[in-house]
Design goal:
By secondary structure, this protein is of the alpha/beta class. 39% of the residues lie in helices and 26% in strands. The longest helix is centred in the first third of the chain and has 55 residues.
C-alpha cells in the first residue's frame, strides 16, 4: 500500500516541476522579448536622431532662381537669401523667406521649395509698371509704388498724378477709362487730380477732358454719349471737353476760338 501511495505522488510532483519550468521559461522569454524590443527601440531612436542631425546639418549648396529677372536681380535674390540659410535646407522657414523676398520693391510674388539633397528653388514674378506716378515713380496694377532700374525704358507709359494717398483711387479710375475708351479707339495718356480733387484726362489725340471732382461715372458716361453722337464724326477735332456742367458740356474745337455749349435733353439726346 505504501509503495502505491509513493507512486501516485511522483506523477503529481513531476507535473508541478514541469509547470514551474514552463513558467520560468515563459518568464525568461518574456523578459528577453522585452529586452530585445527595448534595444530595437533604442536603436531606432538613435538611428532617427543621427538621421535628423544629418538632415539638420545638410547645407544649401545651390540657389536656383527662375522667372524673367535680369541677371543682376537674380544675383540680388541670391544675396538676400544667402544671409538666411544658416539653419540648413531642412529647417528653412520658407514662408519667412518668401515674405522677405516680397518686401523687395521689384518682386511682385515669390515661391520657394526644397530640392534634396542641397538645392533651394526660388520662382519669382517681377513687378511690372503699368503707369508712371508723379515725377519719378511707377505704379503696378495694384497701385503699389514700385522701383524700376531703367526708367527711360518705361517713359512711354501713361502718367498718373495726384495728391498723396490718391494712387489707388486714380489707378482704379484710369483702368475704368481704359475699359470704356477702348471700343472708341481713345487712349488716356495722362490722368491728373489737382489739390481740389478735380480730375482731368488727356488723350493720345491731345484732347483734354475735364471731369471735375464729383460724379465720375455719370460725367464719363455723358462724355461717351457726346463723343458717339457728335464729336467722333465732327468736321473739326475737339481739343477740350468740359463735363462740369449740369446736364451739358462745353467743347472747344481746333482752329476755333469760341466754345460750343452742348446739352442733353430729357431723353439723353445731345442738343446744341
Amino acid at each position: 500500500m505504501a509503495a502505491a501511495r509513493r507512486n501516485t505522488r511522483r506523477p503529481a510532483r513531476n507535473v508541478q516541476l514541469r509547470e514551474r519550468a514552463a513558467a520560468l521559461r515563459d518568464s525568461f522569454l518574456g523578459v528577453t522579448q522585452q529586452l530585445l524590443l527595448g534595444i530595437a527601440f533604442i536603436g531606432l531612436a538613435a538611428g532617427g536622431f543621427f538621421t535628423w542631425e544629418a538632415l539638420r546639418a545638410m547645407p544649401v549648396e545651390r540657389i536656383i532662381v527662375t522667372g524673367k529677372l535680369e541677371h543682376l536681380r537674380q544675383e540680388a535674390v541670391r544675396s538676400v537669401l544667402a544671409s538666411e540659410l544658416d539653419a540648413g535646407l531642412v529647417l528653412l522657414d520658407l514662408r519667412a523667406l518668401q515674405a522677405r523676398l516680397e518686401e523687395l520693391p521689384w518682386i511682385y510674388r515669390a515661391s520657394l521649395r526644397r530640392r534634396f539633397p542641397d538645392t533651394l528653388e526660388v520662382a519669382v514674378v517681377e513687378q511690372l509698371p503699368i503707369a508712371r506716378w508723379g515725377d519719378g515713380g511707377f505704379l503696378n496694377h495694384e497701385a503699389r509704388i514700385i522701383e524700376v532700374t531703367d526708367s527711360e525704358r518705361w517713359r512711354d507709359l501713361p502718367q498718373i498724378r495726384g495728391p498723396q494717398g490718391s494712387a489707388a483711387r486714380l489707378m482704379s479710375q484710369y483702368q475704368r477709362l481704359l475699359e470704356q475708351f477702348r471700343p472708341l479707339d481713345l487712349t488716356p495718356v495722362v490722368v491728373q487730380e489737382d489739390e481740389f480733387g478735380h480730375l482731368s484726362v488727356t488723350l493720345d489725340s491731345g484732347l483734354e477732358l475735364q471731369l471735375g471732382n464729383r460724379d465720375f461715372a455719370g460725367r464719363l458716361q455723358g462724355f461717351l454719349l457726346l463723343w458717339r453722337s457728335e464729336l467722333a464724326e465732327a468736321e473739326l477735332a475737339a481739343r477740350r471737353v468740359d463735363m462740369r456742367y449740369e446736364g451739358g458740356a462745353a467743347v472747344a474745337f481746333e482752329g476755333i476760338g469760341q466754345v460750343a455749349g452742348l446739352v442733353t435733353d430729357s431723353q439723353g439726346k445731345v442738343a446744341r
